[in-house]
């Protein structure tokens, strides 16, 4: 393995730590259902692949639903009565977070006989370079292993650059908001001082006229 391959492998491994998230949890079955959500963040135009594996089967008295929605209101996917494997890929429409929500309901008319119904869920979220099928790309474009590693590294750098650009834009928006808030606070403080001074002068004038009318002054 040459230096380029070693460097590419190291960079790819470091990046995949943050671009791949795997979780395992339980979703209890309830009569009304209670959504359990996992939130992830993606940048605009980034490819996201969500892979879900569950136990159980369709018709076992549980109805497991999955809904993937973005913070901007976009609904990327919704599927009811999920059992076994489920995979969905989508492209983020904006730089924001998105929620993957699971809701498990007891099937109407099903008698659990005191059993604690629940589903085991294993979920993996891949984003950016990690979400691409590099084996298919290598076969389609007839790339050598070193070329594949270079492509991975190039995509990884693009993802990092996109995230850095988003962070810069976000910092600029926060700075603008902070400056605007400071201006408003400053103007409000000046207004309060003007009002207090005006009220004080009015009270002094009123008291002076009052004492003069009573021939005290």
TrEMBL record:
Protein name per Swiss-Prot or TrEMBL: DEKNAAC101888
Family named by the database record: Belongs to the EMP24/GP25L family.
Keywords: Membrane, Signal, Transmembrane, Transmembrane helix
Pfam families (alphabetical): EMP24_GP25L (PF01105)
Biological source species: Brettanomyces naardenensis
GO annotations of cellular component type: membrane
Residue ranges crossing the lipid bilayer per the database entry: 188-204
Localization terms from the record: Membrane
Chief place of localization: membrane
């Amino acid at each position: 393995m040459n230096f380029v391959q070693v460097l590419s492998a190291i960079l790819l491994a470091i990046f995949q730590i943050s671009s791949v998230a795997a979780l395992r949890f339980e979703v209890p079955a309830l009569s009304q259902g209670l959504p359990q959500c996992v939130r992830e963040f993606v940048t605009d135009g980034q490819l996201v692949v969500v892979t879900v594996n569950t136990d159980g089967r369709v018709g076992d008295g549980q109805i497991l639903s999955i809904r993937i929605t973005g913070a901007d209101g976009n609904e990327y996917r919704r599927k009811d009565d999920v059992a076994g494997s489920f995979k969905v890929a989508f492209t983020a429409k904006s730089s924001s977070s998105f929620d993957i929500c699971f809701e498990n309901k007891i099937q109407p008319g099903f008698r659990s006989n005191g059993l604690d119904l629940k589903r085991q869920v294993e979920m993996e979220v891949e984003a950016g370079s990690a979400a691409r099928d590099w084996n298919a790309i290598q076969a389609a474009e007839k790339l050598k292993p070193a070329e594949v590693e270079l492509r991975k590294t190039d995509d990884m750098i693009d993802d990092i650059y996109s995230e850095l650009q988003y962070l810069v834009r976000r910092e600029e928006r926060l700075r603008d908001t902070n400056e605007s808030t400071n201006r408003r606070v400053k103007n409000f403080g000046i207004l309060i001082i003007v009002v207090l001074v005006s009220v004080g002068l009015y009270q002094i004038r009123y008291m002076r006229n009052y004492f003069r009318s009573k021939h005290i002054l």
